[in-house]
Each structure stands twice: as structure tokens, then as C-alpha cells.
Write a structure and sequence with these properties.
This is Phosphoribosylformylglycinamidine cyclo-ligase. It holds the Pfam family AIRS. It is found in: Cytoplasm. The chain contains twelve helices and twelve strands. The protein folds into two domains: 157 residues, PurM-like, N-terminal domain (60s Ribosomal Protein L30, Chain: A); 173 residues, Alpha-Beta Complex (Phosphoribosyl-aminoimidazole Synthetase, Chain A, domain 2). By secondary structure, it is an alpha+beta fold.
């Protein structure tokens, strides 16, 4: 390697060492080629297979990982954010690529980050076929980095999910989240670390553990739960609950003229969310338009398919809640508050 390049802050040899490690972790000896390869044989049935692509990042949850110096799960978040979007289209994720930009190639830290990407791909049964690690000392601070992911899935065009599949009377089935997942962290950090002076080591009785543990819970990957339902054509539409919370994302899964009526008492809300509401003086509307409130994915199911869906979820050890129904209406998402005698 050029000594001049190293003096400028770019250590190519360190990057080569990281690549060797990722090859070993992923079991893909082809990583590092000019392009990633993926065979197209028999990935779907039907006359018109289509590729479904998605890209995403982890947002400012990265700043929590950096502050905690805990990087082993942030790659799981990255994969989850991408492959769950692919599932919501009705496609099965097939392969994944990542981009890591950083100010300094600390080999141990980079290996920890990419080990999470490998773990996420394993959980999603998705091939890691390539990626880029770019050391840019003038672009990022020495301890800072950014992550982006790119996932591609496949489906038969006729089997793609669409809001147009949804009808009055359909049932809403919520799959629980693992806490905050990867959205709303700019607000979370503002409340906890700017409005208040809490530390990552602060323990709250409501949580039963410190903030670091809570905030770095990895985003749930729903492939094992949802893919069998897609294969059996049991789902009308899916909302992946990300930025914009329940209000925005459930609306994306509905056609005009239909309304999702959610019953908040039918599922538990993770304690971090009411805690944030209390500490940040957030309204109920703030919570519903920012956080997942305990539901990482909402499945929209025709009534005659509900028993088959819940049986499949149970067989795949996936918890679920029946959280509402679809009704006619111009307000896309309505929260039906419980009536008390």
C-alpha cells in the first residue's frame, strides 16, 4: 500500500483484513469481486417473476451505538429495515449489499459492525453478495460512520401485495416489535440526552435495565413469520411500521376510501414509549405518528384467512395480536378507544 495514502488517513491494508474476515463470516468467498453474483434459477413460480428492490439505513440510532461502543447488532437493524420492506411488497428477500462509510478503519469495530450484517442476513435467509467499506477521514469524524443497505427480493407479479387487495371487513393482525426498532431516534436522543441529562448507563425502573440495553435492541426481522404466509397467499396487504409510526405506515397499506380501525387496548406498548412521553411531554398523537408503539408489522387479512394465518404464526413461534378491522371511511387510521362502563 502507498505510504503516502496511509499518511493521508486511508489504510487499505486494514480494509483488506476486514474483507477477509467478512468472507469467513459470510461463507461467501466471492466477496470483494467487482460485482456480486446471484443465481436466478427457480426463485419463484409463475409466468412473470419480478425483482423487488429496497434501500434503507439505521438513522441516528448509529449515534447511540457509537456512544455505547457497542456495534454488534446495528447491522441486524440495517438488514431488518431493508428486508421487512421487501416482505411488505409480497416478495421474498434474496440478496443484500451494504455500504459502510467511516472516518477511520478500526478493524475490531468494523468487524463487529459487519458481523451484525452477516447475522441479519442469516436471520433473513438472504445472501450477502457484496458491499463497500469506504474510509474517508475528511468526511467523517474518527469515531463516526454511516451504514446503508440494499436488498432485492423476488415475487410473481400476480402475487405482489397491494392496497387494492384490501376490502371492508378485513382483519388487522399486529406482529410485536422489539422496542423502538430503528426509527424516532433523533427525538429519543433529544428527550433523554438533551432535554434531560441521562446517561446510557441510567437504569429506569419501568425498563428493568439501562438505556443502552433498551435503545440498542435490534429490529425484528419478520421473514420466518411472514414468508410462509406469502407462499400460501394468505395476506392482502402489509404495513411495515417505520418512520411515521402507526399512522403513516398503516395508511400506506390501504386504498382510498377505507380506514383501519385500531383498538389500542388489544396489544401491549413497550414501556420505553410511555416513558419517553412522560419525559418529553409528548402527546398521544406524537407517539402514534413517530413510534411503532409495539407493532413492528401489521398484516391485513381477509376474514376467511384469519385462522390459517394465526395457525401459521403460532407454528412459526411468532406472537401476534388481532388489533382491529378495516372499515369504510375517509380517515385512513382511526384509534378506537376502549369504552369503560
Amino acid at each position: 500500500m502507498s505510504d503516502a495514502y496511509k499518511r493521508a488517513g486511508v489504510d487499505i491494508n486494514a480494509g483488506y483484513e476486514v474483507l477477509k474476515t467478512v468472507k469467513q463470516m459470510s461463507g461467501n468467498a466471492q466477496l470483494g469481486a467487482f460485482g456480486g453474483l446471484f443465481p436466478l434459477d427457480a426463485k419463484t413460480t409463475g409466468n412473470e417473476p419480478v425483482l423487488v428492490a429496497g434501500t434503507d439505513g439505521v438513522g441516528t440510532k448509529l449515534l447511540v451505538a457509537i456512544a455505547a461502543n457497542q456495534h454488534t447488532t446495528i447491522g441486524i437493524d440495517l438488514v431488518a429495515m431493508c428486508v421487512n420492506d421487501i416482505l411488505a411488497q409480497g416478495a421474498t428477500p434474496q440478496f443484500f449489499l451494504d455500504y459502510l462509510g467511516l472516518g477511520h478503519t478500526d478493524q475490531a469495530r468494523v468487524k463487529a459492525i459487519l458481523s451484525g450484517v452477516v447475522t441479519g442476513c442469516q436471520q433473513a435467509h438472504t445472501a450477502l453478495i457484496g458491499g463497500e467499506t469506504a474510509e474517508m477521514p475528511d468526511m467523517y469524524g474518527e469515531q463516526h460512520y454511516d451504514l446503508a443497505g440494499f436488498a432485492v427480493g423476488v415475487a410473481n407479479r400476480a402475487d405482489l401485495l397491494s392496497p387494492t387487495n384490501v376490502t371492508v371487513g378485513d382483519v388487522l393482525i399486529g406482529l410485536p416489535s422489539n422496542g423502538l426498532h430503528s426509527n424516532g431516534f433523533s427525538l429519543v436522543r433529544d428527550i433523554l440526552f438533551k432535554q434531560h441529562d441521562y446517561q446510557l448507563t441510567t437504569v429506569f425502573e419501568e425498563l428493568g435495565h439501562d438505556l443502552q440495553t433498551e435503545l440498542l435492541r435490534p429490529t425484528t426481522i419478520y421473514v420466518d413469520a411472514v414468508q410462509p404466509l406469502l407462499q400460501q397467499k394468505l395476506i392482502a396487504s402489509i404495513a411495515h411500521i417505520t418512520g411515521g409510526g402507526l399512522i403513516e405506515n398503516v395508511a400506506r397499506a390501504l386504498p382510498a376510501g377505507l380506514s383501519a380501525h385500531l383498538k389500542p387496548e388489544t396489544w401491549p406498548v413497550p414501556p420505553i414509549m410511555p416513558l419517553l412521553a412522560k419525559l418529553g411531554d409528548l402527546t398521544t398523537s406524537d407517539l402514534r405518528s413517530t413510534f411503532n408503539l409495539g407493532l413492528g408489522m401489521v398484516l391485513i387479512v381477509h376474514p376467511e384467512q384469519v385462522n390459517a394465518v394465526t395457525a401459521s404464526l403460532t407454528a412459526n413461534h411468532q406472537a401476534y395480536y388481532q388489533v382491529g378491522t378495516v372499515q369504510a371511511g375517509d380517515t385512513p387510521v382511526v384509534f378506537e378507544e376502549a369504552k369503560h362502563a
